[in-house]
Every structure is written in structure tokens, then in C-alpha cells.
Write a structure and sequence with these properties.
Low-confidence stretches: 1-7, 482-489
CATH superfamily of the largest domain: FAD/NAD(P)-binding domain
Strand order of the largest sheet: 4-3-2-8-18-17-16
CATH topology of the largest domain: FAD/NAD(P)-binding domain
CATH architecture of the largest domain: 3-Layer(bba) Sandwich
Number of domains: 3
Distance between the termini: 46 Å
Length: 489
């Protein structure tokens, strides 16, 4: 193997970060600021490190799902101050928010620009310490008792600690019958791929599998590309993300009920919504008030209770929790009102080919006979996958083969103890860590910027004072850190 000099100098003072999106970039920058004696190596494939998928593969019409004041990371300059110097990029957002930049919903790409700029400013080149970026794909752990990673091109990076910050995983293949269809050109497995819509007739019908935030992004992207053909979006329940709404307030109410079962908490939230509406407060404030306690609730549920929530309640929670910007909601409603987009609660029942079209059989929710629709393209809008055993990820496969990680039983990600990865036998790793969506089994919701910043700060704090390999804290203590996040997440 060829050694990479950026990782070989003083491995005991090197930290390798796999992934250059939000989690990996903010962690590397903050650790570099706290420990200037370390060499921190971000390993990422894209040419423009710092953006990740969420803030890289997006168009101008794709907006942040939260206002500017919920996107602060603790970096300098602050995101809001950086935006204030670019009024030409925020005009429409400011018009919507009445001139208040803090409450504005700006394009996602701007946050990508911001992170990329922060990384470019801090990036070292030939210095022995500081933040370095290595373009490549990490495919294996070193093994043989060595700590570090091997890249696809044969380079190796030895390190005292490795942090997995790979972000959201690629979409998984939809289940069901006629799986052969997913290998045909009529199926788009990843709507964010550069060639996702190549060759698509603008007037042709499109079927979108999934009705969550990915579907909203894809429908608006197709419309922006000039697609005039009909779009049909299907999911089991046909639920669509709701919009943000400003105003009102509601006090926290879940902290005294952390041990209650999922159905009991659902009834409690519904009661709070009714009370809020009677008091003139929008239901959005109830979910904002509940949100900071969710990680603590999750940490107290049994595996059976977590499974119950995922199977029966997750979809309804998601459409209320993961909301859209008002302008995005208006654009979506416009597509629906003029009939170009339809949403149906149905299951995929099968596929057949009809020339250059797919004939898709749908089984509507609530009964009734099967329906058949035609589509020139079937687009996977099911969102990021999380079940690691259903994806071929070389690095994850290598770590699992060596017993260095333990995927959870619900297919959410990796078992961790306050960011420290659990090994196959249950022991807490002394050198392997994870950030962001991979840690869902312990934190449940760990995709929004405020949550990730809390997690990053905890790990940086542990590495700041002692050795690079930091001792973990307690799982429930980690979940409790979300209690101070505030509203509007």
C-alpha cells in the first residue's frame, strides 16, 4: 500500500474524519481551533469539500427547511453575518420575512457556500498540523491492530482516532414485487445523481415513489427544469410535509413524561395541539416545544416501543416535525392546484414494460381495486437509507467484518455511546467515533444543524482536554443535551 504523508506524520496526533459535509466539516474546524497541535484530515470524494450532499446537489429553488437563526454552527463569522454581506442573494427571502434575515428561509446552496468558505480559510497545505483535506474514498479499516483507514487508491492514513461523518446514506431500493424493474433505465435510483433526468421528455408522465421532503424537492426541481408532464407521487399513507408558520408560543410539556409509551405521548401531543389552537397558537409551536425532549424520550423507550413508533407513528411525526419553508409550500400547492402534481396513498403492486414507458400497478390505501398508471420515469424519492445491511458500503463492510462496529437491530445506523462506536461485542471503542445520521439508534433525530452542533461540541470537548481518543459519556446524559436547544428547530 502507498502511504499518504498527510496521515503518516505522527499518527498519535492525527484525527481522520471520513466525510466532508456539515458534521465532518464543523467537527474538523472546531477541533482544529481547540487543538491546534493536531493534524486533522478530512477524507471526502467531491471536488468541493465542505458542502456535503444536502448543500451541494441542490438548485436555487431548494431552500433551507429552517430559518437562518437555526443554522448557526459556532463558526466565525456567523452565518447570519456572512449572509448580511450578500444582500443580492437573499432578496426574495427577505421580502418573505419582512426584512428580518434571522427568520428568513434562504437557498440551501448559500449554506454550502458558507461552509466551503470556512473550510477553505482554515485548510492547511504543507504544515504538519491543522485541518487538511484528502480527496478520495475511504474503503477499509487498516486492521492488524493499526488504527486508521485505507483509501480506494491504496493510500493509507494512520490516526489515533477516526470519526465517521458520512452523513445521510444513498436512497435504498424500494421493496415489493418485480424488483427487476429497478435495474431498467426507466428507474431513477438516486434523484440527486447528475444524470437523474437525462433523456426525460418534458411532457412525459413521471411517478415519484415517496411523498416526503425528497419528493417535494424533486417535483420542484422538475418544474424548474421545464417539465410540463403530469407527476404522481405515491406512498403508503400519502402524507406530505407541512409548512412552517411564524408566531405564537407554547411551553415545554414532555419533560415530565419522558417514560411514557409512544401511543400515550401521541395522545398527549394531540391534546396539547387542541389546547394551543384554542389559545390561538399554531400547532407548529407544540412540536417545537416537544422537539428538544425527543432524544431523551427515545433513550428511555424499549426496543419494542421504538419499533412501534417507527412502524405506526414515524410518518405522521415526520410530516409535522420536518417542515418546509413557506415559499416552498406555496410552490408545492401551486403544482397541486393546477393538477400537474397529484398525491396518492397507495402501495406499488407491480411493474410491466410498454415500449419506452412503465406500466405501474398501484394498490390504493383503504381498499378498492388496483389501478394502473404509465410513467416515462419512476423516481426513487424514499429518502436516505439507514439499514446498513441493505447497502454495499465498503468502509462499513470492512469495519463490520473486523468487529469494530455494531449496526442496530432496527436498521437505523450504528450503536454508539455518546459518539463512541460500540464494537460487535458491545465494548465501547477507544478510537472510533460517529457523528450525524449514523448515530440515530442513540439519538433518534440527528440531522438538523442545532442537533449536530450539540453532538459535535460534546465530542470536541472530550478531545480537547485529554488524549485524542476521548472517553465517552453516558447515553442519557447525551440525550439530555438537547433540552436546551430551544424552539423553532
Amino acid at each position: 500500500m502507498r502511504a499518504d504523508r498527510t496521515g503518516q506524520a505522527e499518527p498519535q496526533r492525527t484525527v481522520a474524519v471520513v466525510g466532508g459535509g456539515l458534521s465532518g466539516t464543523v467537527f474538523a474546524l472546531k477541533l482544529g481551533r481547540a487543538r491546534p497541535d493536531l493534524r486533522i484530515v478530512i477524507v471526502d470524494e467531491p471536488r468541493r469539500a465542505g458542502r456535503g450532499l444536502a448543500y451541494g446537489a441542490c438548485s436555487p429553488m431548494h431552500l433551507l427547511n429552517v430559518p437562518v437563526n437555526r443554522m448557526e454552527t459556532g463558526l466565525e463569522p456567523r452565518f447570519i453575518d456572512w449572509l448580511a454581506e450578500r444582500p443580492e442573494a437573499t432578496g426574495e427571502a427577505l421580502a418573505e420575512s419582512g426584512g428580518d434575515l434571522a427568520s428568513a428561509f434562504v437557498p440551501r446552496a448559500l449554506f454550502g457556500d458558507y461552509l466551503e468558505a470556512r473550510l477553505a480559510e482554515a485548510r492547511a497545505t504543507d504544515q504538519p498540523t491543522g485541518v487538511h483535506v484528502v480527496r478520495g474514498r475511504a474503503v477499509a479499516a487498516l486492521g492488524d491492530g493499526r488504527r486508521g483507514i485505507r483509501l480506494e487508491d491504496g493510500r493509507t492514513i494512520e490516526a489515533a482516532s477516526v470519526v465517521l461523518a458520512i452523513g445521510n446514506l444513498p436512497p435504498g431500493r424500494p421493496g415489493g414485487v418485480d424488483a427487476w424493474f429497478y435495474d431498467t433505465p426507466l428507474f431513477t435510483p438516486d434523484p440527486w445523481a447528475a444524470d437523474a433526468f437525462d433523456g426525460l421528455d418534458p411532457a412525459a408522465p413521471v411517478l415519484l415513489v415517496g411523498t416526503g421532503l425528497t419528493m417535494v424537492d424533486v417535483a420542484l426541481k422538475l418544474a424548474d427544469l421545464g417539465h410540463t408532464g403530469p407527476m404522481l407521487a405515491v406512498s403508503r399513507r400519502g402524507l406530505v410535509a407541512r409548512a412552517h408558520r411564524a408566531g405564537g408560543a407554547w411551553p415545554p410539556f414532555l419533560n415530565a413524561h419522558l417514560g411514557e409509551a409512544p401511543l400515550a405521548l401521541l395522545r398527549r401531543i394531540r391534546a396539547e395541539v387542541r389546547a394551543a389552537e384554542a389559545a390561538g397558537a399554531p400547532w407548529q409551536r407544540v412540536f417545537d416545544a416537544a422537539r428538544p425532549a425527543v432524544a431523551a424520550v427515545w433513550s428511555r423507550w424499549s426496543p419494542a416501543q421504538r419499533r412501534q413508533f417507527l412502524r405506526h407513528l414515524r410518518a405522521r411525526w415526520d410530516v409535522h416535525r420536518h417542515r418546509t419553508a413557506p415559499r416552498i409550500d406555496a410552490a408545492l400547492r401551486s403544482l397541486l392546484d393546477r393538477g400537474q402534481l397529484q398525491i396518492k396513498a397507495a402501495r406499488l403492486a407491480g411493474f410491466a414494460l410498454a415500449g419506452d414507458r412503465a406500466r405501474v400497478r398501484l394498490r390504493p390505501r383503504g381498499g378498492g381495486g388496483e389501478q394502473t398508471v404509465e410513467a416515462a420515469r419512476v423516481v426513487n424519492c424514499t429518502g436516505p437509507a439507514s439499514a446498513l445491511d441493505q447497502l454495499a458500503l465498503p468502509l462499513i463492510d470492512s469495519l463490520r467484518a473486523q468487529g469494530l462496529i455494531k449496526p442496530d437491530g432496527l436498521g437505523l445506523g450504528l450503536e454508539t455511546n455518546d459518539c463512541a462506536v460500540l464494537e460487535a461485542g458491545g465494548a465501547v471503542s477507544s478510537w472510533l467515533y460517529a457523528l450525524g445520521p449514523l448515530t440515530r439508534p442513540a439519538w433518534w433525530e440527528i440531522t438538523a444543524t442545532p442537533e449536530i452542533v450539540v453532538q459535535v461540541d460534546r465530542l470536541v470537548g472530550r478531545m480537547r482536554d485529554e488524549a485524542v481518543a476521548a472517553a465517552p459519556g453516558g447515553g442519557r446524559d447525551a440525550a439530555a443535551a438537547f433540552l436546551d436547544l430551544g424552539a423553532g428547530i
